[in-house]
Structures are given as structure tokens and as C-alpha cells.
Design brief:
Elements lengths: L50 E3 L23 E3 L5 E2 L3 E8 L3 E5 L8 E6 L9 E2 L5 E2 L3 E11 L5 E7 L3 H14 L6 E12 L2 E13 L2 H14 L27
Antiparallel strand pairs: 1-2, 2-3, 4-9, 4-11, 5-6, 5-9, 7-8, 9-10, 11-12
Length: about 260
């Protein structure tokens, strides 16, 4: 469920799930479905919204950053495209669960961004190493588990991209889905945030738990979306793990 709109906003309805920080996304009912001027935009031209977890070093919590989201607090779940802030626990079903993969990022000092989107499994960049003192050094490439999920009851489609401290949560979610012995969209799950801690400090982590069966109406929509997205490459906005130095014990670092 989304947080209530401020009085100055002009929401589409009481069930609207879009928080409008700078401009309204409201359109007249008679124009709904009319995509005049947008005919050229294909699926490959779109970026999937990402469900993110606000950390102390997240751009979105810094008032001086252009990506700042008004009202966002550390530990909040938010949509990086619409800037919607979600109430917790946030219920969802899984539309698609992708195999794990690795991405190499350029250092911030070199401008940041993706250096190699598809680092092969077993590549030296995916392995932990040790320095001269025996201290554990995290892999150069970052490991990701990507899920396409449908938020409930809004049926909003977003990506949930888990890395570092999120990897145990990804594995837990995979296990919960497999235990059902049913399609990935058969189960409903609840996502919230909690606290994690390593040698470098305290940070926020995802928490996931089983929340029952997906309602029939939502399951039908999710199954249709599964078919629509089958085999498609999904463009997801990702960032490296640089909000806190890695734990020298296990190389873990908080998520951005």
C-alpha cells in the first residue's frame, strides 16, 4: 500500500500509487490509452522501474543531490523511476526470477557506470582475493539476483535487483518459491527493511517472508505478464556497492 498523498498533490484517485515530487502525472480520463506521439517507443526503449532501499549514502536522501526524493528516509522502500515511497510490509508476487549474473562497474573516480554488463561465471573478476596482509578483498564484479515482481494490490510491475547483503534474501525468496512446487507467481510475499551490521557499521537490509497465496485475479495478470516478458532482456538501473566499505571478513557491503 502506498503512503497517502500530501494535501497539495492532485492524485488520480485514492488508490493512486504514484507520488509526484515535481509534477503531476494525472491525465484526463478521456485521454487514457491515447499514446499519440509515442508510437515509436518500443519495449527496448524502456527502463524497468527498480524497487530500491534507501541507505545513508543513497543519492535520494541527500537534499543537495538532483535525485533527492522529498520525504524519503533511510530504510524506506521506493521506486527509482516514479519516486513513489511505499508503506511496509510491501506485498508482491514474482513474475520472473532470473539466474544470477555479474556486472563490473567503473570506479567513481573514472566517472562510474557499467564497464562490463556480462561478466562470465568463473571469471577471475567474480572471485574473492586477499591482499598482502591476508585481508579479504571483494570481487571486482558485483553479483546480482534480479526479479521482476508485481506489487499487490496495485499490480505495478517493478524490478527487485539484489546484491551483496541482499543475496541471502534472494536465495531465501528462491527457496520459498521452489517449496510451493508451483509457478513463481503462485505465491505472495512481504518485503520490508531491517538493520544489518558488519565491521564497517550499520546499514539497511531487505527482509522477505511468505504472505500466502496470490489472489486469483492477480495471479492471472501475473501469468500474462510472465508470458509477455519471457525471453526479453530487461534494462534495469543498477549501481555498484560503494555506500560502505566491504566487510573484511566476508566481503559483504550494504545495498545502494
Amino acid at each position: 500500500m502506498a503512503k497517502k498523498q500530501p494535501e497539495k498533490e492532485n492524485p488520480v484517485s485514492e488508490t493512486s500509487l504514484v507520488k509526484r515530487p515535481d509534477q503531476s502525472l494525472t491525465i484526463p480520463d478521456q485521454e487514457a490509452g491515447n499514446r499519440a506521439g509515442l508510437e515509436h517507443i518500443q519495449q527496448s526503449d524502456l527502463k524497468m522501474p527498480r524497487l530500491a532501499l534507501a541507505q545513508k549514502m543513497s543519492h535520494e536522501v541527500d537534499p543537495d543531490d538532483p535525485r533527492y526524493i522529498d520525504g524519503l528516509k533511510v530504510g524506506d522502500l521506493f521506486n527509482d523511476l516514479t519516486q513513489m515511497i511505499y508503506d511496509q510490509p510491501l506485498e508482491f508476487t514474482v513474475v520472473r526470477a532470473d539466474p544470477p549474473h555479474w556486472i563490473e562497474f567503473l570506479p567513481r573516480t573514472e566517472g562510474g557506470g557499467v564497464k562490463d554488463m556480462s561478466v562470465p561465471e568463473g571469471d577471475p573478476r567474480t572471485a574473492f582475493t586477499k591482499d598482502a596482509s591476508g585481508k579479504s578483498i571483494p570481487p571486482i564484479a558485483t553479483k546480482f539476483y534480479d526479479f521482476i515482481v508485481m506489487l499487490l494490490p496495485s499490480q505495478e510491475i517493478v524490478s527487485l535487483s539484489l546484491k551483496s547483503t541482499g543475496i541471502p534474501v534472494a536465495k531465501q525468496l528462491n527457496a520459498l518459491m521452489l517449496m510451493r512446487n508451483a509457478p513463481c507467481y503462485a505465491g505472495k510475499y512481504a518485503l520490508s527493511s531491517g538493520e544489518g551490521k558488519n565491521a564497517k557499521g550499520v546499514f539497511k537490509v531487505y527482509r522477505v517472508k511468505n504472505a500466502g497465496k496470490t489472489p486469483d485475479e492477480d495471479r492471472i495478470v501475473a501469468s500474462q505478464m510472465y508470458e509477455n516478458l519471457r525471453g526479453r532482456v530487461i534494462d534495469i538501473n543498477r549501481e555498484p556497492d560503494d555506500s560502505m566499505a566491504a566487510n573484511p571478513e566476508d566481503g559483504s557491503a550494504p545495498q545502494m
